[in-house]
Amino acid sequence: xxxxxxxxxxxxxxxxxxxxxxxxxxxxxxxxxxxxxxxxxxxxxxxxxxxxxxxxxxxxxxxxxxxxxxxxxxxxxxxxxxxxxxxxxxxxxxxxxxxxxxxxxxxxxxxxxxxxxxxxxxxxxxxxxxxxxxxxxxxxxxxxxxxxxxxxxxxxxxxxxxxxxxxxxxxxxxxxxxxxxxxxxxxxxxxxxxxxxxxxxxxxxxxxxxxxxxxxxxxxxxxxxxxxxxxxxxxxxxxxxxxxxxxxxxxxxxxxxxxxxxxxxxxxxxxxxxxxxxxxxxxxxxxxxxxxxxxxxxxxxxxxxxxxxxxxxxxxxxxxxxxx
Length: 324
Ligand SMILES: NC(=O)c1ccc[n+]([C@@H]2O[C@H](COP(=O)([O-])OP(=O)(O)OC[C@H]3O[C@@H](n4cnc5c(N)ncnc54)[C@H](OP(=O)(O)O)[C@@H]3O)[C@@H](O)[C@H]2O)c1
Fold this sequence. Notes:
The protein is of the alpha/beta class. The protein has helices spanning 30-42, 58-67, 96-110, 129-141, 155-167, 187-190, 192-198, 236-241, 245-261, 265-274, 289-296, 305-314, and strands spanning 3-5, 12-14, 16-18, 47-49, 76-81, 115-120, 145-151, 175-177, 201-204, 279-284. Strands 3-10-9-8-7-6-5-4 form an 8-stranded parallel sheet. Strands 1-2 form a two-stranded antiparallel sheet. Helix 1 (30-42) runs parallel beside helix 11, helix 3 (96-110) runs parallel beside helix 4 and helix 9 (245-261) packs across helix 10 (265-274). The longest helix has 17 residues, at 245-261. The relative contact order is 0.13. Residues 19-21, 23, 49, 121, 151-152, 177, 205-211, 214, 216, 227-228, 266, 283, 285-287, 291, 294-295 line the site of NADP nicotinamide-adenine-dinucleotide phosphate (NAP).
């Protein structure tokens, strides 16, 4: 494993992290969840990613149960708040009330007395930035979180929130979590210049575009049973964002290039994300230890300029901003 700094901040995170969306505590049974967590740890993964909303708390519970067997000081835990956790008017968003209540609930589910990063899962236009920034500062001063961050906030809002933090003499955010893959390159132009400037580290999600970049979804074919795309409880994002014949065809080109290099397509797609110094860690999502072992190989794959140019050619930078 290799470790990288989180922007300008002190802690080192494994450049490959383990996620828990649609997998741990949801798609994977207890044994597979435990085996995945243990394998990741044994291979040097210290960064484990979750959210209160993943399987409505179940991902945190299962993750916490199995991480409890490991030394807390070896682990770097990130969880999130914002998505609805109930039907009440205060059961969602980034108000001080919801942040404080959900932080306590997450710590209880995880069985931990602090998390390393607490993250605003999306922006909340109903809550002033001052309130959210101060709520994070209060949690940090109470020893419940060490750093805070955001996921999928537009760059101008990040700059504004950090300016508010400085005005309040509160800590600025340390971590950003964007979607980033060969099929979603927008952060290169829309986010990384800002996070580099602010000293914020990026831990990027969906590096395989929900499995599309493994090449297992073939042109002209429906998804095989057992895959994310075939499961109506898991496939809303892959179907809405990536499910085109063109993407399936491009993924086959990626497979051919990977074969010429003697590596797997997933490994190549993940190593491509890691080539950016703005990326502190790439979060893996896997439904078996076999997938995890394949994807972890990305850590040792150095890409030549020729390979990067070939991938730029196959997956050019998009010109338009997506509405997601
Ligand atoms: N901040 C946010 O809003 C946000 C959003 C999404 C995710 N995340 C975080 O990022 C993590 C990763 O996201 P993601 O799960 O979307 O990542 P991904 O790497 O794009 O997709 C993972 C899925 O692809 C398939 N897959 C992975 N490796 C494979 C391999 N070697 N061969 C074949 N299939 C393979 C598996 O699904 P099947 O086996 O079921 O086909 C796996 O669950 C999440 O767990 C979560 O912690 C954060």
